Fold:
Amino acid sequence: EADIYQTPRYLVIGTGKKITLECSQTMGHDKMYWYQQDPGMELHLIHYSYGVNSTEKGDLSSESTVSRIRTEHFPLTLESARPSHTSQYLCASSGEGEAFFGQGTRLTVV
Amino acid sequence: SQQGEEDPQALSIQEGENATMNCSYKTSINNLQWYRQNSGRGLVHLILIRSNEREKHSGRLRVTLDTSKKSSSLLITASRAADTASYFCATAPNTGTASKLTFGTGTRLQVTL
Structure:
């Protein structure tokens, strides 16, 4: 059973609102990831962290930002949501082996 | 750009048949992993094969790795309708603690009765 949690599971929000997607893991993993995925499509890495206070942009440019103040917590923030941000956001963590994924947040911006 | 390319993009087979998916990657790796994703859910890890291994089995899954060709294959034997999902390969580069896991483009498998 994976010990990584994402909230909320679904979010419908109006254009221009600020949102934060939460991701927490209890496995003590140093590496954490945020991926963006449209239905039936490939995963795009948007943010990566390999430890506290270390974050990097991923392969896909994103207007979102992340922080890693604690090992277990890796929230993603959008300052001003737009319809183009509508997608599924997947959080994951890993040690040196397999990655564990949360159930995802499906974001719809109207 | 994605590290891994998978083919086919989509595969439809009947229950009981075998399904083979292929993954090619670009850089040196420490290990290669396969994941499964049911529609709208997070990914679930299936199997990990290290760069010094050539073949690995887990139940009905068989994974091969050819580092000279930078490719891997996933074989699912005696497929079931419940195997219907998307399958992704992921590579971990051979570059130290800051290395990140990068996913391929995925194969959508449909198993029909």
